[in-house]
Write a structure and sequence with these properties.
Helix content is 1%, strand content 44%. It is mostly beta strands. Among the domains are: 1-190, no CATH class; 462-656, no CATH class. The protein has a 24-stranded parallel barrel. It has a five-stranded parallel beta sheet with strand order 25-29-33-38-43, with no helix packed on it. It has a four-stranded parallel beta sheet with strand order 5-7-10-13, with no helix packed on it. 58% of the residues are buried. Residues 1-9, 360-365, 382-386, 438-444, 470-474, 599-603, 644-648 and 651-656 have low confidence and may be disordered.
Length: 656
Amino acid sequence: MASDIMGPPTFDHAFIQIFGDYADDCTTENGSTATITASNKAGSVMFIHGNQRIEVVLKNLTLSDGNNTNLAGTGGGINFTGQGTLDTTNVTIFNNTATDGGGLFADGLGIGLTLKLRAGTVIDGNHARGGGGGMSVSGIVDLTPVENLLVEDNIADSDINNSGNGGGINFTGAQSWTLPNTTILANTAAFGGGISVTAGRLTLGANTVVENNTATGDGGGINVDGRGRLIAAKPQTLVFFNHAANGRGGGINISGARADIGSPGFGGVPVVSFNDALHGGGIAAVAGANPAAVRLFTTDTNQPGSISNNSAQLGGALYLQQFLATTTGGADAGFCAYNFRIDGNLAVDGSAIYGDTNIKNSQTNASHGQDLIFLNDDGTNFPPDGEGGFVCNPEPASNLGAVASCSPETACGEISGNSNVDSGGNATDGATIQLNNANSFALNALARFVSNRLRMQHNAGGRVINGTSGTISGNAHVELDTCLITNNNVTQELMSVEDLTINSCTLANDTIGADHVLHGGDILVVEDSILTEASLAVIDRVPRVFGVLSSLTQTNTLPAGANQFLVVADPLFVNSAGADYHLQPFSMALDRAAAITSSIELGNDVDLDGNPRAVDLPGVNDSLGKPRDLGAYELQSLPPGCRRADTIFCSGFEPQ
């Protein structure tokens, strides 16, 4: 092993090079690895500080057994504070301990630090009493040159006092970092088993995997708090098989911060998948003094942004919790998704989404936020003041690479195949989407769910959407515009919501345990929709505000006086057995929409396929004022000869 301090006479900064594979003559490399150990000594293996630029090049080395835990000791393996460059190739930082940054501590001052972590760089088996079991990053640190980094089997909170952050890497401070080409594997911490971000902005670059990390508290894979921000929009990015069995956010936990998730995933595996937690198997967003927000989108037209195959007690894919303040200062928790898929998730309740308002009966005078959910809807037009703006539009998602739409062959805007089961795999009566509130008093809406062009299919549980809590008036507000809700299996009614509006939707072929489709809460409006659920009653009771405007059912089961422009007929789907709910040319649902325009229909001029609405079919009477079809799909044209009085067959379908 040899070390050199060298450089040409005009070299303008300190330069240190240590190669562990030099032969004895110090002129040739033989491929061996040398170990530098600080065993039985106090302090870091390498201590690099200064107010001038320093360049350190390390190759074929193992740095081990450093112990820098006295007071605020930092960097058990390497302690680098100042400005300059750390360049490593085939370097293992192993079995070191510190208060902060067990393996590597990097604090960039002045012009900052650049970490060139090349092939064979491994940070393994290190411990921190506080943050950064493997690595702690603060200040101005450029990680973009990272080529190949493995951070594995490190522990933060090694003194087990439930305060350690970032088992793999801990990022602190109001800076921005980009981390590419890194695997964060099997690390442990109290918060952020794999990665913790406090106050700063972390962008996961391409080829970054956060896998099989564990938090004893929140954020099995990643924990973001202190108004920090996480962006994961590059290809080949994955957060999977992480665990927070006693906390929130198996994959990602957002506490008073935000996350923007747009990566198509890695090798066909969805970006957030196979994680587990007590609350929020995939992602949890929990407001505090600051709101919490998650935005889900995709940068690939052939792969939606997906939260898939996660599990939890509450919120298999997603858990939201607004913040309750004693008097003023309540904060919202929000979720906004475009071109997304939420599928295959499991929970006792809220297999896809669980919105927890965290309000108790004795807290009627408290200031509360809301759980805000906007699916394919940016929320900016929602009263009273564009509450969804902070969730969906800190900047256009296109600035982060989001595509405008998925390809026609790609199933986007879908919540499917989620199941409510207990830990033993037994079915429960939980809802696919649970907007929970444990109150027994009246408040303004504590949960708002607004969707546009949504598919909900093949989910199993008590209800597809539940937003009721006894006699409460208006604590869950749900708007469904242009939706397809089919082939779900529920033990109770399909939906039970205190304030529910359904516009241009198709509800069909669901297996429903109750004798009615919808629970009549406080407000229920159904407009321009098709409800064909066997011979079940549409509702169980008449709400305070109720209207069924220009819709179609197969049986007239509405209360007397509520049949406003109701069509009772077979909708003539193309092939309901094959799950094709487009309309045949002789359907009574064609050009049948009412002249009244719903507030949630404004600006929505496409059907579920993205085709134009208001297609005026020749020969079809616009019976109620608008050339717009009922249900989720708009028939774009009639085959030649259809709608003539002497037509017997039309494109293979016989009129009925």
